[in-house]
Amino acid sequence: MNNKGIIVVVSGFSGAGKGTLMKELINRYDNYALSISATTRSPRPGEENGREYFFMSKEEFEKLIAEDGLYEHACYVGNYYGTPKKFVQEKLDAGKDVILEIEIQGALQIKKKFPEALLLFVTPPSVEELEKRLRGRGTETDEVIHGRMLRAKEEGQGIDEYDNIVINDDLDTCVKQMHEIIQAAHFAPSRNKEFIEGIRAQLSELK
Predict the structure, then answer these.
(1) Is-contact 93 53, C-beta < 8 A?
(2) What is the structure's pLDDT at 1?
(3) Which of 102, 115, 111 is nearest to 74 (CA)?
(4) What is the per-residue pLDDT across 61-118, written as a single tens digit (0 to 9) for each?
(5) Beta carbons of 122 and 11 less than 8 angstroms apart
(6) Which helix (H) or strand (E) holds 151?
(7) Which of 191, 196, 194 is nearest to 116 (CA)?
(8) What is the pTM of this model?
(9) Continuous segment of H or E residues that includes residue 58
(10) Which CATH number describes the domain made up of 7-35+96-204?
(11) Which positions of the chain have pLDDT values less than 50?
């Protein structure tokens, strides 16, 4: 069977708990690596190059785009953000499943370039719970929360492009389910073409 890792793209509504889920997944199981994005924005206090982000100049980033060195990229508020292929490929070759937290647009870009990627969409059990979690943060105004809810309405239209839905109701249950979904994906025929061809070659010798 294929021992290489797989790319796991995680998207979801703001407030769905994606970050917490992924931290738990990485803490509990040792076969995951979290992808580090590249960006042209300046490091914030306490951030380190190669830990939170790969910080680079606009010229360096545009060179990566020209060389097709990114799985996906986007420009937000005058800064580039993207997923470098080199870092991801090194982890995949080492047998790690690489988790990318990306919004819907970027996730679909990756699916186009890399059809073997596994796309997971994280959602709370209800819209009411989503709003409750956003309010529970206590850091955002009503206006911002309303904006996030309208954004969720748009994002909801793209859920059926994903391979699996992960309902984040109870964190412990959700982390286990997410791990099981990813492990099961390793056994999909589309990710084991060499193994299947080997079996077929052996069978073809039967007379």
Answers:
(1) no
(2) 61
(3) 102
(4) 999 999 999 988 888 778 999 999 999 999 999 999 999 988 888 888 888 888 889 9
(5) yes
(6) helix 142-155
(7) 191
(8) 0.84
(9) helix 58-66
(10) 3.40.50.300
(11) none
CA-to-CA dists, residue 98 to 26, 118, 163, angstroms:
10, 10, 16
**How far are the Cα atoms of 14, 18, 89, 98, 110 from residue 129, in angstroms, in the given order?**
12, 15, 37, 29, 29
Q: Residue 2's pLDDT is what? A: 61
Range 27-66 burial, b when 16+ CB lie within 10 A, else e? eeeeebbebbbbbbeeeeeeeeeeeebbbbeeeebeebee
150 burial (CB, 10 Å; 0-12 / 13-18 / 19+) is: exposed
Q: Which two tokens stand for residue 8?
A: 């796991």
Amino acid present at 159: I
Whole-angstrom distance, CA of residue 162 vs CA of residue 42 = 33
Q: Tell me the CA end-to-end span of the chain in Å, nearest whole number.
A: 26
The letter for the amino acid at 134 is: L
